Each structure stands twice: as structure tokens, then as C-alpha cells.
Amino acid sequence: MADIVYRGVGPRIAYERRIARLSQADLARTAGVSLGTVRKVERGERGVSGAVLEAIAGALGIDPTRLLPERERPDDRVHQAMPGLSAVLASYEEPDDGPCRELSSLREAASTVVGHRLGAQYTRIARSVPGLLAEVCRALSSAAPGVRPEMARLLVDTCRAADAVAFKHGARDLSARLLDLMRWAGSQAGDPFVEAAVAYVRAELHFGAGTYAVGLRSLERALDRAPRTASVAALAARGALHMRAAVLAGRAGDHDAADVHLDDARDLGDRVQEGVYQGTAFGPHSVRVHEVSVAVSLGGSHVGRALRLAREWKPPMDLPAERRSGFYIELGRAQLWSGQPDAAFESLKMARRIAPQHAREHRWVREDAATLRRLKRADADSLSSFAEWCHAGTVA
Fold it and tell me: Engineered SS bond to 35: which of 28, 79, 103, 310, CB 3.0-4.6 Å?
């Protein structure tokens, strides 16, 4: 796959470099590129490939999309990855021959894409996940019985990262096929915690289709099957399922079920430390984020609960970027519904600062930015620029 060349990024790289108090030589050394390349890029004499853009962004400690011109789409690489993912899905049970790294290397690679998913780094996932998915499928097909369960778990993790890219970018058919592969791999793992994680992720099918009551019943069946021991892993697995069930119940308008599941999630969250369990962030902070989500899902008089919580609490910096960004997207919708358009715009901008790729591809961000632009209650130039950035008015 040919790499994309981005142009017009020089002034932004120079600006961010000065903010970081780095010389051109410092940036070149940290990013692993030549000093001549940095100089030519900043002068506008050459563009940068996706790999170089990511290396420079990594050296600066920022999301790569912050270096792109306002109207540049950062998801070209994501769309280029779709055919490769489709090809893997067509042959996962009988994969083509090819290279396979050692288990330890595959474990590290899968851990990396999990981190990118939690950080909403979708272009970075797209760079590596088609090849990694094919490689893990090959490794699983030839794995010895003792290794096969862990290889299946790695396939679940890789599928979940690939699905995050597909789902967020509107490739719903591809997402559904990835979820089917995830379920198949989960059955190979023979691990009830993996099965609970798969059930958590597959609930997105019902969010996308609007079949909230059906999705709620599916999660409640998964809760019946989930381990009920007092181990941290079991508490986190059940707690995550309760969090997602609460939101589905809210979307279904089932106030009682939403409260029950949220209460259960809160109780379980208080018994574990905030962390990432089987690829899902769970703990007291994640439950608070979902309290806002449930209130917004229920709508009407419940929106005030979201506003009250946001006045008392903000997600801490160590919570995964995608989850923190989601909090501000939900809060922005509550503020918009409550007649606070300026506050809503500030929340959307905060979501963008935390996880640009997540905010840009979120349906609610597009809808709310379009509504705010119609209201014309915020700074016109700033709002128009934001609306163009997230392609407001275009809902996948």
C-alpha cells in the first residue's frame, strides 16, 4: 500500500516544536528522521509520509492530526486499510502462507494496538492492523494446543482494534464481520473473561442498529454466564457489562433497568482500582463517565443529572483518551439540550483536544456542531472552522 504524503504541515510542526521547546536538531533526533528532512518540511519544501508524520508527532507528544491542515482529512489511511481487512476476513479459517513472528512478538504487537485503540489513535491502528490480523490468523491456524488459547485471545484483541477503526469510520458491514471473527476467536480461547469482553464489544451492533432492548437482553444473558467469583478480573468483567447494559437500557427508555445496572456497576467499580481489564477500562471513574452517558440516553429531566455530575467531577488524565473524550461529547449534548450552546461548544472542543480522531468521527459531534452553527451562538469563525473539521452535516 503506497504511503500518503501530507503537505502544508511545516508551519504546524514548527509551532508545536517551539511550544515543546525543542530545536530542529532535537526534534530530528527524537523522531528518528534526518535534520535535513525537518528543515525542508518546516520550510514547506517537501511533504511528509504518514510514517514520518507519526514519528514527529510522537516526538512532540501530540496526536498526529494536530499537525494536519484544518481541511486535511486524516483518515485516508484508514479507508485504505479497509480492503486489506476484508481480504483477511475472507480467509481467516484457511489463511494464506506467510511470515509469523514468535508468540512474544505477537503479544507485544497486539498490546500496542490495544493501546492505540484506548487512545483513539485510529490512523496508527490502520497502519498495522491488516498485516497483524493476517499474521495472528496464520499463527492461530498452526498453533499447538497449549498455545492456541492465548493466540485466540490475541486475535480477539486485534479484531477489537480493527473494529474500532471500521465502526468509527462508518464501515458497518466490515465491523459486523470483524465482530463475527471476534466471537469465533473468543470461542477458541475457552476463557469466560474473553467471552464477556466479546459480549461487551458486540453490543455496539445494537447501538448502531437502534435495537437497544434486544441488546440489553443480550448483555443480561452475558451477565448470567459471566464468572461470579470475587477476583478482580471477575468483578471488572461483570462491572463492564453492567455499565454497557445501563446505557442500552437508557437508550431503550427503561429507567428502572438503567438504574439497576448502573447501581451494580457502581458497586463493582468501588471494589476495584481503575484500570484496563480484558481491553476495557473499568473502575470508579469509568462508572462516573457512564453515569453521564445514561442520563443523556434517558434524556428529558434526567439531563440535569449529567450537568450536576459534571459540575462536581471531571475525568482524570490517566483515564484512556477515548473515554475522556466521550465524557465531554456526552456533556456537550446535555449542555446543548439545556440551552447552554456556548458551554456545549467548549465541551466539544475539549473532546477534540483530548482525542481528535475520536471526536472527528463521532456522530454526535457532527450533529451538535451542525446545530450550534445553525444557532450561531458561539464565535462564528471558530465554530465554522470546527464544523468543517468534523464534516458537520454529514452523518454516516
Answer: 28
Task: Output the pLDDT for position 76.
Answer: 61
pTM for the model stands at 0.82
Residue 199 lies in a domain: no
Cell 463493582 identifies what position?
268
DSSP per-residue letters across 133-170? HHHHHHHHHT--TTTHHHHHHHHHHHHHHHHHHHHHTT
219 and 132 in a single domain? The answer is no
Q: List Cβ neighbours of 23 (8 Å cut-off, separation of 6 or more).
A: 17
Q: Is the residue at 301 inside a domain?
A: yes
Asked, for residue 200, whether it belongs to a domain, the answer is no
CATH number of the domain where residue 58 is located: 1.10.260.40
Residue 74, Cβ density class (10 Å: 0-12 exposed, 13-18 middle, ≥19 buried): buried
- Where is the domain boundary, 38, 72, 106? 72
* Distance from C-alpha of 96 to C-alpha of 87, rounded to nearest angstrom: 10
Q: Give the pLDDT of residue 83.
A: 82
- Annotate 65-102 with three-state secondary structure: HHHCCCCCCCCHHHHHHHHHHHHHHCCCCCCCCCCCCC
Rounded CA separation 112/103 (Å): 14
Cα separation, 222 vs 217, in Å, equals 9
Confidence of residue 75 (pLDDT cuts 50, 70, 90): low
Report the number of distinct structural domains present in the chain.
4
The tens digit of pLDDT for each residue in 198-219 reads: 999 999 999 988 999 999 999 9
Q: What is the mean pLDDT of residues 331-338?
A: 96
Q: Give long-range contacts, CB 8 A cutoff, 24+ apart: 70-75.
A: 70/385, 70/388, 70/389, 71/388, 71/389, 72/6, 72/8, 74/123, 74/356, 74/357, 74/360, 75/122, 75/123, 75/169, 75/357, 75/360, 75/361
173 & 239 share domain: no
Contact 225, 253 (CB under 8 A): no
Residues 320 and 303 in one domain: no
Q: Which domain holds residue 353?
A: 315-396
Question: How distant, in Å, are the alpha carbons of 17, 24, 49, 56 from that of 8?
Answer: 16, 17, 12, 15
Q: Is residue 22 part of a domain?
A: yes
98: confidence class by pLDDT, cuts 50, 70, 90: confident
User: In angstroms, rounded to a whole number, what is the distance separating the alpha carbons of residues 342 and 184?
Assistant: 46
The pLDDT mean for the chain works out to: 89
